[in-house]
Design a protein that fits this description.
The protein has 325 residues and is an alpha+beta fold. 52% of the residues lie in helices and 21% in strands. It folds into 3 domains: 43-133, Serine Threonine Protein Phosphatase 5, Tetratricopeptide repeat; 136-225, Tetratricopeptide repeat domain (Serine Threonine Protein Phosphatase 5, Tetratricopeptide repeat), CATH 1.25.40; 227-240 and 247-324, Immunoglobulin-like (Sandwich). It has helices at 2-58, 62-74, 81-92, 96-109, 116-127, 137-153, 158-170, 174-187, 195-200, 214-224, and strands at 201-203, 209-211, 227-237, 251-260, 266-276, 282-293, 298-305, 316-324. The termini are far apart.
Length: 325
């Protein structure tokens, strides 16, 4: 009689343990889904930022695309596409040396990428060279040596000077490049109208020739577009449907920081944040006042959005800064 009771007790115990394991699995599976959802969401957010920058570039709004691309790059994102779009923006904003740097960075990360051939085409136009393997540093140095020898044989050849100066420039030897550019315009003043030379040389009020190095170009760009965004991110918060009525709404949060990279104080700085649904539909806009920004000063911003039909339909967000001159 003892054995049947033991058997029944064993079966009951086994069923209890199976039920515990099943409940544990369901809880773990739910947590995993939540974490997976968050991870996927952040990836989509970064993609949306790059996509938005691309849309701005296609519209010709390069100054607006610039801070968004810097924000993605400063976030640590390693998508090579960011460097290609930065190359386009720098080129359109009149900073060819920075355009070259970013095109080359793109080629180093994605030599067979979608934009690789176009990057090489842009580089050839900027430096006047047919070389297809520009992303290789040793090739750049070999090209410089070849042109130096050629210039020794033809010391008055301005076209060789120009090619060599361009290669010096891309190799960040701005002193040698600047001296060659000056020699070129002194030998032939018509070169002042050359697009590369005119973007790298300038005469001041006294007639002195100034070499517009990348440092000088960035300084001027910073004065022209002084506010840069970084650490911009979004996340969801709030209770799920089914909780108490006052806690049922999800919240879409956007936060980040802005920095004044210019040498002047910016007054009455505001940040405008907008969230979008699919097909570009605008859900809501928030304007945040940050007051004045001193040179180099950083200020955070944050906004919460609840005006949408379903938080799952929030596709992306956008941000723009305004200030008084």
């Amino acid at each position: 009689m003892g054995n049947p009771y033991k058997l029944i007790l064993g079966i009951v115990l086994l069923l209890y343990l199976c039920n515990c394991q099943s409940n544990l699995f369901k809880k773990q599976d739910k947590d995993t889904l939540n974490l997976s959802h968050r991870k996927s969401y952040h990836i989509n957010t970064t993609f949306s930022e790059i996509k938005l920058a691309q849309q701005l570039i296609e519209k010709g709004e390069f100054s607006q695309a610039f801070p968004k691309l810097l924000s993605v790059m400063e976030s640590g994102e390693k998508d090579a596409t960011v460097y290609y779009f930065l190359g386009i923006v720098y080129q359109e904003l009149g900073s060819p040396q920075n355009a070259l740097t970013n095109y080359i960075k793109y080629l180093q990360l994605a030599p067979q990428g979608v934009y690789a051939e176009h990057s090489r085409k842009q580089i050839r136009e900027l430096i006047g060279s047919p070389l297809n393997q520009i992303e290789r540093v040793d090739t750049i140095e070999n090209q410089i040596q070849t042109l130096e020898k050629k210039l020794q044989q033809e010391p008055q050849n301005t076209e060789v000077m120009l090619q060599l100066a361009n290669w010096y420039w891309i190799n960040q030897n701005f002193t040698k490049a600047g001296n060659l550019y000056k020699n070129i315009v002194s030998l032939n003043a018509t070169y002042w109208s050359h697009p590369i030379i005119s973007s790298r040389l300038e005469k001041d009020g006294n007639g002195e020739i100034i070499v517009l190095t990348p440092e000088e170009a960035l300084k001027r760009e910073a004065e022209k577009n002084p506010i840069v965004f970084f650490n911009v991110t979004s996340f969801r918060s709030g209770r799920s449907l089914g909780w108490a009525s006052d806690l049922k709404h999800h919240i879409y949060n956007v936060s980040g920081q802005v920095r004044n990279r210019s040498s002047r104080t910016l007054r009455n700085v505001t940040v405008q944040l907008t969230i979008y649904g699919f097909s570009g539909m605008i859900y809501d806009t928030r304007t945040i006042s940050l007051g004045n920004l001193s040179p180099g000063q950083i200020k955070p911003f944050s906004a919460q959005f609840v005006n949408f039909d379903n938080i799952e339909n929030v596709d992306h967000y956008d941000y723009t800064a305004y200030y008084d001159e």
